[in-house]
Amino acid sequence: MANIKSQIKRNRQSEKARLRNKAVRSEMKTRTKRVLAAADEGSADIAEQARLAIQRIDTAASKGVIHKNQAARRKSRLMARVNAATK
What we know:
This protein is mainly alpha-helical and about 90 residues long. It has three helices and no strands.
């Protein structure tokens, strides 16, 4: 347990950030899973699902939850799966 005032505050801030990041990351993963499920089913709304997933990935990158290169990689792999499923 921290006994220095600044460290106690830092721990509080870190916990808040962790919960925020967890929510963003969870939403991003959920949207991605929906796209993959739609791709497997051959669903008609796959383009809309992909758009929403990419939007969440970009949001996570802009907030610093994930690195911009990781965001690019996730989007690339996601679109490769979508394009393979629509052919």
